[in-house]
UniProtKB/TrEMBL annotation:
It comes from marine sediment metagenome. Keywords: Membrane, Transmembrane, Transmembrane helix. Pfam families: CARDB. The chain crosses the membrane at residues 187-209. Residues 2-72, 97-169 form the CARDB domain. This is CARDB domain-containing protein.
Length: 215
């Protein structure tokens, strides 16, 4: 009696083979009974000539993980059904689509930094994004993302000093510029002020001129 293979996953076939020999002097018919765990699983009737031998096979399939005993007319063996090994991929993260808006602001105005974080792995996981400005940590954000999901993370940044700033988030980079606010000249007010000064100056000049003539 042979059982092959001796270990399978649910639904996989096991072949049970047994040699049947006719040691008598005439052809005969013989019925083999296969039992699994003591319960009849199948039978097979064969006709074998005198002195002949035949290999009889049975195919057995089981769905439940367990050890199964096999018997065929006093011969015995066994096989085991094991649960399939499930390989779960760990969480794998990728960062993309770094956006910096607007690219130029005045001192004290807010810049919005937006980045997409995707979990391309097979399980939920947590990840910490670190935002650096000019190589110095500005902020960080830890999030939990389900397998296959994408989150957009937003970092607001405000700078008071004018200059060019480099932004990096997990290997992605960009920049923004901070400029001093433009000086706005109020020409109507300035013109009115100058005009008023001129009028006052003319009046003073006229008064002085009149006094001198009277003197």
């Amino acid at each position: 009696l042979t059982v092959n293979p001796t270990q399978v996953e649910p639904g996989e076939a096991v072949t049970v083979a047994v040699h049947v020999a006719n040691t008598g002097g005439t052809e005969g018919i013989y019925t083999l009974i296969l039992k699994i765990n003591g319960v009849k699983e199948a039978d097979r009737t064969v006709s074998i000539a005198a002195g002949g031998m035949e290999i009889v096979t049975f195919s057995v399939t089981k769905e439940d993980p367990a050890r199964y005993s096999v018997t065929v007319d006093g011969l015995s063996g066994s096989f085991t059904v094991v649960a399939p090994t499930i390989v779960v991929e760990p969480a794998v993260f990728s960062v993309s689509n770094l956006s910096i808006q607007p690219a130029e602001v005045t001192t004290g105005e807010e810049v919005t930094i937006d980045v997409a974080l995707t979990n391309t792995g097979g399980t939920e996981g947590s990840y910490t994004l670190v935002l650096k400005v000019n190589g110095v940590k500005e902020a960080d954000r830890t999030v939990i993302i389900a397998a296959g999901d994408t989150l957009n993370l937003i970092f607001p940044v405000t700078k008071e000093a004018a200059g060019s700033y480099t932004v990096t988030v997990d290997g992605l980079s960009g920049s923004f510029t901070v400029v001093e606010p433009a000086v706005v000249t109020n020409w109507p007010l300035l013109g009115g002020t100058i005009g008023g000064v001129i009028v006052i100056g003319l009046l003073v000049f006229w008064l002085i001129f009149i006094r001198r003539r009277r003197a």
